[in-house]
Amino acid sequence: MGRVLHTLETARREGRKLLAVLIDPDFGQDRERLDRTVQNACMAKADLIFVGGSLLTSAAFDRCVQRVKELSDRPVVLFPGSPSQLSAHADAVLFLSLISGRNPELLIGHHVTAAPTVKALGMEAVPTGYMLVDGGRPTTVSYVSQTLPIPHDKPGIAAATALAGSYLGLRTIYMDTGSGALRTVSPEMVAAVRTHVELPIIVGGGIRDAQAARMLCEAGADVLVVGTAFEEDPERIFAMSEAVHG
Fold it and tell me: Max Cα separation, the chain?
């Protein structure tokens, strides 16, 4: 077991909640902005730093990951939107299978392309069942993945999907409404998934305040991922950190 998966599973067993900050790889084009974001994340005691996104619009990905690693002693984990989003500077990659959709490329196709590179880089791969949930409006991830999200008010579908993922041998479940979503995954849906699986549950998308973060943690989320809200108001991360770690 690699370091990152060990961290997730240990925190789950001990009942500790973790906070991850998601860095847009396009930050690599703005060195000052990237440095400030990573430094604020570390000051706020983020436990993990994710790098990646659904749509990469620059060639700065590897440079961005390298800089994040230079500035932080936290594990740097890739959240790849495509097989091209890999870097030897990262500690691990979330090996995402979009189990909520029916796009074969995102269930297994891209993984076949990426696997030899991950092995050659000696990178830890964390088998992750990725579940896209309706966040109130279309997002980049739904457009790029060409899949329909799980309806926001259908926790039973999410629970059954997560259970299937656990039976397939996946080690974590990532529930996401996508960057810029109007709302996050409902606490009711998180609670339903929690009753069906013992795997670490990661929740991201649409988490904008400490109250929402606290409710998701109480419902059973183990890791909360904050991206857009942090970019809009860096000070907000400190309140969210207190809510998660408290």
Answer: 44
pLDDT, one tens digit per residue, over 14-50 is 999 999 999 988 876 788 989 988 999 999 999 999 9
Cβ-in-10-Å burial (0-12, 13-18, 19+) of 66 comes to: middle
Asked if residue 182 lies in contact with residue 136, where contact means CB atoms within 8 angstroms, the answer is: yes
- CATH number at 69 reads 3.20.20.390
Cβ contact 25:33 at 8 Å: no
Residue with tokens 């739904």: 142
Q: What is the identity of the amino acid at 51? A: V
Asked if residues 189 and 175 have their Cβ atoms less than 8 Å apart, the reply is yes
- Domain extent, residue 170, equals 3-245
Q: Report the number of distinct structural domains present in the chain.
A: 1
The structure's pTM equals 0.95
Q: Are 222 and 12 in contact (CB under 8 A)?
A: yes
